[in-house]
Amino acid sequence: MSDYTQMWRDLGLNLEAHDMLLNVLGNAYKDIYLSQKNRPEGMGYFDFVMSEVHGLRIKELIDEKAQGRKIIGSYCVFVPEEIALAANATLVGLCSGADFAIEEVEKYLPRNTCSLIKSAFGFKLGKVCPYLESADMVVGENTCDGKKKAYESLGSLITNLYVMDLPQMKSEQGKALLKGEYYRFKEAVEKLTGVKITGTSLKNAIKTVNAKRSAIHRLSELRKADPSPISGLDALLANQVFFYDNPARFTESVNKICDELEKRIQDKQGAVPAKTPRILLSGCPMAVPNWKLPWIIETSGAVIVGEESCVGERGTRNLVDESIFNLLHNAGDGVNESSIDDNQIIDKMMDAITDRYFKVDCAIFTPNQERLNHIVEMAQNYKADGVIHYSLQFCQPYIMESIPVDKVLEDKNIPTLRIETDYGMEDAGQLKTRVQAFIEQLG
């Protein structure tokens, strides 16, 4: 492994705290991931990515910056990667999956703030996230009241913070707001990069991101098999790496492991034995290294076959409609970016992008029947024996929705367990007892 100390020092990281974080992360990864049996060989790539998640990948981003490319950091799946790519920028997910510098964080935020928000502050205050320190722009979004108010404080810590307004209702007015925000983001990214987005560049960006999501769709489909050819932990890891890796390389690597999984299904080779209780995990997103609950579930005699989560199917379910590309057919690759025709083409593509992201059924929306329908649909499609609904403590949108989720699943005779927890391990024993009892009932 290369020595990245100077690179981290140049980024302004707290080297002592960062070393401590990497040690904890490395030990957790070894205990949770590398201890698994019957893993697909293709997971070796993702093991490598995680071993270099603060090393080689950061060096790649630094090299891109040296060549004039801008790096944009994001905390949410509502930030469109297509727009960033079309303006010659790279979009990466930011650290928000572990507790860090809690005492310092609570000088800015109340104690009863959800762990995801506190984590974003902790990684900044602790100076341990190289993605954050590499970013030329950091994009926040007012998905919930907690984030909306927290960004007011985070803005005093980050000089390059950009906050995106999101609708709270699925209506034509809400869609119009989202499209307007995406145009505002497009203008901000073009100003950042100095690159004007054209019909051709936006088309290519849409195809790149669609290919990435399609690879994850393929992986998800293969998880419907019994025995499951891959553990839920390994599939979750692929969904997490989705936010960090080079898009083309990620797509190739996921498709490669899917080739292997198809062969495993044909040979009836599973990561777990056939008839292992199948769990759909639903609720809050799980960013690296938030592996606690999946690890508890899969060491309690079950396998996770799907994630109804922004780091999972909710975040990648839909593609941007590519039928708009026929408008470019006659224009070819030499579209005049200043012409009216190209502006019309871009506007149609922005409509398609808005339509795609507006379908994300985050718990911020009201009413949110679509999410309830999708949870039932996923439980049935993945042949789940039960659903575990996961909420971070003090995450009001998902906690509030956990009750209607429970009710709609009960109406469909699908067993459900509601879990409310944080990033700490103090409740791991209690959670394991509850999860084991739930899994035993499924048998």
Tell me the layout of helices and strands.
Blueprint lengths: L4 H6 L4 H20 L8 H9 L4 H11 L3 E5 L6 H6 L2 E5 L8 H4 L9 H11 L4 H5 L2 E5 L3 H10 L6 E4 L7 H22 L5 H24 L9 H10 L5 H20 L11 E6 L8 H7 L4 E6 L4 H4 L23 H19 L10 H13 L4 E7 L3 H16 L4 E6 L6 H15 L1
Question: What distinguishing features does this structure have?
Answer:
single chain; 443 residues; alpha/beta; Rossmann fold; 4-stranded parallel sheet; 19 helices; 52% helix; globular
Can you describe this structure?
The chain is of the alpha/beta class. The protein has a domain at 5-205: Rossmann fold, CATH 3.40.50. Helix content is 52%, strand content 10%. The protein has 19 helices and eight strands. The protein has helices spanning 5-10, 15-34, 43-51, 56-66, 81-86, 102-105, 115-125, 130-134, 145-154, 172-193, 199-222, 232-241, 247-266, 292-298, 313-316, 340-358, 369-381, 396-411, 428-442; strands at residues 70-74, 89-93, 137-141, 161-164, 278-283, 303-308, 386-392, 416-421. The strands form two sheets. The protein has a four-stranded parallel beta sheet with strand order 2-1-3-4, with helices on both faces. The protein has a four-stranded parallel beta sheet with strand order 6-5-7-8, sandwiched between helices. α9 links the parallel β3 and β4 (161-164). α11 (199-222) runs parallel beside α13. The longest helix is centred in the middle third of the chain and has 24 residues, at 199-222. It is globular. Residues 335-339 have low confidence and may be disordered.
